Amino acid sequence: MKEFMAQKVLITGGTGLIGKKLTTFLLKKGYEVAYLTRKKVNIPSVTVYEWDVKNNYIEAGALENTDYLIHLAGAGVADERWTEERKKEIFSSRTDSIELIARKFKELNIKPKSFVSASGSSFYGEDTGDLQHTEHSPPGKDFLSKVTIEWEKAADQIAALGVRTVKLRTGIVLSNDGGAVPKMAQPAKFGFGAPLGSGKQWLSWIHIDDLCALYIQCMENESWDGAYNAVATPPATNEYFTKLICKALDKPQWLPNVPAFALRLTFGEMANVVLGSNYVINQRIQDETDFQYQFPDLLDALKDVLKN
């Protein structure tokens, strides 16, 4: 019978940075893990189903017996220059995909125990200076804010089916397998570490292990509901972040800051990702939960990430 079987966790975007690490956590806990992917691939210990969002297709059997749903799918914000076409892809890859699942759940009368959706700390704005944001702060009005607002609205379509829904507004994820840290550490490894822009912009961050633990906590614990800022506290300035990367690598930091205009010439509007300032506070996690971070200290987190 179902109660004697491993519980099924269906993940969109499972082959990405967070999805891969989260999968190892889930498998260790005895969950059955399944992915929805655009191309069929063989992944050890994971059942892979195909889907085609544009053509309203999800492979038969993918949604059946789903106990938990985790939505990580979305085109990388910092992977390519922001052309108008790329902006459309960043937007639609996050919203259309979960809207499709919501329609299929409704058609098949499937109701998982909980749904956890990725979201972004960019909800509050790409660049908000020293302004401190809790989960109760209003959203921003720029491109990434609008993307995140619609991302969360799409997630609400699952909530409308009567499914407990959690949204994790995630900051910079610290990992040695991808994301911002390896890119920031590369010049530092050769002694060329330098802050970006003014260096005064705030970076809200979280170690990938803590983020994966948060996903599982949100998935399992019925007291979690709504939006949470998935960041550690406190945030750090870009200048301090760079200093600690150099310290973790035991390398000097001697170059002057990389000027903002040079970054804008290179990356265009996408430079907002590294030049923007976001001071985000995990108030709901602190006040309403007993979640304990494994890496609350930035230097310890960077040393763990950069040890290899």
TrEMBL record:
* Record-given protein name: TIGR01777 family protein
Gene source species: Dyadobacter koreensis
State the similarity comment: Belongs to the NAD(P)-dependent epimerase/dehydratase family. SDR39U1 subfamily.
Every copy of the NAD-dependent epimerase/dehydratase domain together lies at 9-221
Locate the DUF1731 domain: which residues? 258-305
Query: Where would one find the signal peptide in this protein?
Result: none
